[in-house]
Amino acid sequence: MSIGFTELLLIVCFVVLVFGSKRIPELARALGRASREFRKARDAVEREGAELLDNGASTDAHASVDSGAASPAASQPAAKVGSSPEKESAAPK
To answer: 3-class SS at 27?
Structure first.
């Protein structure tokens, strides 16, 4: 089921009749620009997906290396932000 010469010729005649010969170059340019934008967006999504996969793989590798020894920061409890007496007295009221 491919498009033969006759079908292609009918499509071209239909396009010329509907749009006119002056508008066909404009339509071709617009189609080319749209195609280029689509390719740029597709490439950007593929790059971002590859970066996410690379970051996920490197994070998993770091997690397996770090799981043997706990870091000092991880063993300390989290400090409350803004609860130190120095910061409270310096803040304007």
So the answer is: helix
Of 24, 30, 29, the closest CA to residue 12 belongs to 24
Region for residue 33 given its phi and psi (left: phi exceeds 0; alpha: psi -120 to 50; beta: otherwise): alpha
Tokens of 48: 């971002």
Given this model, what pLDDT does residue 79 score? 53
Q: How far is CA 89 from CA 6, 79, 80, 81, 92, in A?
A: 87, 18, 16, 15, 8
pLDDT digits (tens, 9 = 90+) for 21-77: 889 899 899 999 999 999 999 999 999 999 998 887 777 666 655 555 555 555 555
What is the rounded CA–CA span in Å between residue 7 and residue 28? 20
Structure confidence at residue 37 (pLDDT): 97
3-state class of 42 per DSSP? Answer: helix
